[in-house]
Amino acid sequence: MKAISYARYGGPEVLTFGEVRDPKVGPDAVLVRVRAAAVNPVDWKCREGHLDRILEPVFPVVPGWDVSGVVVRPGVSVAEFEAGDEVIGYVREDFLSRGTFAEYVAAPVRTLARKPRNLSFEEAAGLPLTGLTAYQVLTKVLRVRRGETVLVHAAAGGVGSIAVQLAAHLGARVIGTASERNHDFVRGLGGEPVAYGDGLAERVRGMAPEGVDAVFDVVGGDTLRASANLLAPEGRLVSIADGGVVGYGGRYYFVRPDAQDLRRLAELAEAGVVSVHVSETFPLERAADAHRLNARGRTRGKIVVTVDRETGA
């Protein structure tokens, strides 16, 4: 099959487009014909070797963890899906090898849910990793409650835009950091935008003088340090970007595949609670360009790689 792969760590130049071996479908997996795969910061961070201490690479590595597509063949132990079912998945395993930037992926059934009927394949591909991250952090770690004030960083980005929508759905007041060009976008998601950068703490205090009840950090560094001082008494802090959060009494979190959570996200998408904004799409053979664009860190919503149903490119 055709796929994007890399045989060593490095920059976008190590990504190659060509033939790789077809995936084997285990008893608890399904073979998915990929229609679209979202690009996430973790994809290029893995490619550069930043996660080498926790994820063993089996070269050549096909990158990508997000997928939307169509079931071709279920494994012999799978009763949840049949050929022809449209699915989404956060197809992460405990090593790097068989990703979603390919014509096909063998996806463990624990990573899949049915695709929301009201989303295109491109939109649906942007839901699993970002949606699960936002959902798990807000409901299982921060445990956001109605009437609380939540500060979401990078509120116009992939994770942030979903987090704003979910936190608002939970009944929270949501303050979201974003560049001024994205303020109307954040308002449309249900958040109150605030410019990031110098003076952020003062601006947030002006909006929430008594402090915020929860902070969802996706940036780290100076932003994380400033956020720690904005918490109300008993406030909670979670970062998905900076392990130093523990020094401020918070928690670092790495999203996990969960079919039940993914089904819940699909239900929320079909109910109109959650939407996915796709800012740009690239054909599979231009995945390196998609990585470059994502690494700039200024994307509104999601960047998606598409796989042509006829040619695989």
In a nutshell, what does this entry contain?
This protein is of the alpha/beta class and 313 residues long. The protein is built from nine helices and 17 strands.
Structure description:
26% of the residues lie in helices and 29% in strands. The protein is globular. The chain folds into 2 domains: 2-127 and 277-306, Quinone Oxidoreductase, Chain A, domain 1 (Alpha-Beta Complex); 130-252, NAD(P)-binding Rossmann-like Domain (Rossmann fold, 3-Layer(aba) Sandwich). α3 packs across α4 (158-169). It has helices spanning 41-47, 121-125, 128-141, 158-169, 183-189, 200-207, 221-228, 259-270, 287-295; strands spanning 2-5, 16-19, 29-39, 56-62, 66-74, 86-90, 95-98, 104-108, 112-114, 149-152, 173-177, 192-194, 212-217, 231-239, 251-252, 278-283, 302-306. It is an alpha/beta fold. α5 (183-189) links the parallel β11 and β12 (192-194). 49% of the residues are buried. Strands 3, 5, 6, 8, 9, 16 and 17 form a 7-stranded mixed β-sheet that branches. The chain has a 6-stranded parallel β-sheet with strand order 12-11-10-13-14-15, with helices on both faces. Strands 1-2 form a two-stranded antiparallel sheet.
The counted number of beta strands is: 17
Q: How many DSSP helices?
A: 9
Largest sheet: 7 strands, mixed
Shape: globular
- Residue ranges: pLDDT <50 for 5 or more in a row? none
The rounded distance between the terminal residues' Cα atoms is 11 Å
- Gyration radius over CA: 19 Å
Which structural class do you get from the secondary structure elements? Answer: alpha/beta
Mean residue pLDDT: 96
Domain unit count: 2
